[in-house]
# Entry
Amino acid sequence: MKHILGAVCGASALLLAVPAMAETTLTIATVNNGDMIRMQGLTSEFTKNNPDITVKWVTLEENVLRQRVTTDIATKGGQFDVLTIGTYEVPIWAKKGWLVPLANLGSDYDVADLLPKIKDAVSVDGKLYAAPFYGESSMVMYRTDLFEKAGLKMPEKPTWDFVVDAARKLTDKSAGTYGICLRGKAGWGENMAFLSAMANSYGARWFDEKWQPQFNTPEWKATLTTYVNLMKEAGPPGASSNGFNENLALFNAGKCAMWIDATVAASFVTNPKDSKVADKVGFALAPNTGLGKNANWLWAWNLAIPAGSKKTEAAEKFIAWATSKDYTKLVASKDGWANVPPGTRTSLYQNPDYLKVAPFAKLTLASIDAADPNKPTVKPVPYVGVQYAAIPEFQGIGTQVGQQFSAALAGSMTVEAALTAAQSATEREMKRAGYIK
Amino acid sequence: MARIATTRRVVASTIGAWFFGFLIFFPILWMMLTSFKTELEAFAIPPSFLFFHWTTENYATVQERSDYFHHAMNSIIIAGGSTLIALLIAIPAAWSMAFSPTKRTKDILLWMLSTKMMPPVGVLVPIYLIYKSFGLLDSRIGLVFILCLGNLPIVIWMLFTYFKEIPRDILEAARMDGATIGRELVYVLTPMAIPGLASTMLLNLILAWNEAFWTLNLSTSNAAPLTTFIASYSSPEGLFWAKLSAASTMAIAPILVLGWFSQKQLVRGLTFGAVK
# Structure
């Protein structure tokens, strides 16, 4: 018995023991997107120049990562030294004092080179709280061959009327081709990202200046009615469960004539290794209704340091490396210019090597420039964010509303009923949170 | 009255059983097939069932990108450790409740089960804070502990029902024959309890192996088991279905093989009592 006890104690001690190290170990949390995987692969280039730093990666699915990282940062758990977070979290977390401002990125970092809209999105009161790793907006991707066959020409700035009309004409359900593929899966970052951006182009807004929810306005009704009817007539079956990946699969398999989604998809749909239609894709700005706002969003994945980290110096060194111009050059030299992380730096869009291999570069930049997180809607709003409102309550509210809208798309609810339900749910949550009485 | 097993009935029930067996196994089979496809074929519409270009490149990529054996070893330690400790606590607990129940036994059993009724996310923050204070975050011992606690009610309940089915008459008969307590335990009780113990152990092992909430939330890299290994291949922006399938196949392979070899014990334990 004594032996067993000894063995158990010994084993426990071994499990608990943390090896003493002279070097700094950075734990970096990230999502499993292509550009981040590439960054992981290139870590050795960073550690080669910084032999006193070792890097440990924690890669998780976006929603799991969000929950994991939020728990850690809210409890000051100190498990991570560098976090990959979205533009939604940066202003909220920065205001709570959860993030370390990035003041020592180095003299050659060139903050002025960051795209102004993206830089705004990760700054609070003029201070940079996260460094953008890649940025994206949304745009129309369409099949040039199908458009030609139907005798249609995509304008550079299409209107919703044109998109709806073209989608109807291009739908051939017997051949399994659908005029348009759009997000339908419920979630604040899924269907609501698209629908909030679409609503902006219709002159709608989430809240008025006094935080009163606006789902009972004619603008929202026009948005949702157009969306539901369009998807019924010209969308793929079962669209209410389609998110980014499902639509990407449909588009790459040649099932969609148009797809409005993240600009980062452009490099996937034009890659012959992944796509059957790689050489037949054209791009255009997200549609508008002539009110001055396009239906495109703005998002960036950023690297930030949580306030609980004790290795801020090394963490900042890593962030400066991964978001620098030199990193872009490093990726280009290893994997080619088409694979560099897009949407963060002005210099990339002036680089002739990049422009040559990225037919989508011009429109990505134009789309990012067209989105303004500080002035996202036609009418004034009290919140920051294009396809979201940067308040902590938005995740919950956005997902609840997304469920109603997804139900409207699936046909289990009318558009009116969905909007009424969205309005009362949002009102309830905003009252509870103390924004309105 | 027993029904007569005609050939037709046997054939029909065999076909039926195979059909349902296949239906239940199909998602796993599909995942395994997808893991041998290229990313382009993984989402092909219509999907190709067997006639595609078979490749093992996904496995190579997965192995190159993440350390499978590190994660697998963590899974074995965490699942095995939590099962062992749970059994050590549960056997005496269930034994005493089954053989010398008091008037509170039922309440205690129900109270134990009620702890399983709360969604784990409800206690995530308090547990996280406790783990932080004790330095248990990202440690294997911390995960062993939490999984053991989480599964303990089920283990006790299962063992309790098995032990309860052992008829006291048999024990009395043994005593009449002059068996001492030690002999009674070794020669009478243990053989009757073993199928139940084995199936409880297996079920608990499978539950602990697949547990994805606590293992994802309380580990970062040192103690990360196979659940985090799978989660690292799920992507919101990018189609990596073939790689995800390869990672998932690798993650379930050990437990699948274990289940395969021990299915006789498992079925026996779940369906047979001491006297049936």
In short: Residues 68-271 of chain B form a domain with the MetI-like fold fold (CATH 1.10.3720.10).
